[in-house]
């Protein structure tokens, strides 16, 4: 069965569990920007970089895996903030390993300065790059870096 070629300029920006509460949940830790604010920042940076984004959030591991598999056919790269799936989901890791795309892992906080259980990331084993602790600006950094990676191809 023939597969469609991924769009050279499309990047999936995938957000995991509880990121829909960004700006409300623990603002002293995660800041006051909402996920809608992050989406707007990403759209602006994507436009500057000549990229198109598919910006999504889910609280369900299976949905995240479905999106990662979809990206395999429809995207040139993935930016993922796996949130709570970071240190728990081998299934998400396996899906990322199967896509053969550049992957940038993003965390709003510096996971290495937080609770010990947050220090380990399954996702990092598939990631081309990791950005942690830059706040929501990390998404913009990830888009700029993704554009650089895609131009190098």
UniProtKB/TrEMBL annotation:
It catalyses: 3-dehydroquinate = 3-dehydroshikimate + H2O. Catalyzes a trans-dehydration via an enolate intermediate. The active site is at 30 (proton acceptor), 107 (proton donor). InterPro entries: DHquinase_II, DHquinase_II_CS, DHquinase_II_sf. The lineage of its organism: Bacteria, Bacillati, Actinomycetota, Actinomycetes, Micrococcales. Keywords: Amino-acid biosynthesis, Aromatic amino acid biosynthesis, Lyase. Its EC number is 4.2.1.10. Gene3D superfamilies: Dehydroquinase, class II. This is 3-dehydroquinate dehydratase. The record marks 25 as: Transition state stabilizer.
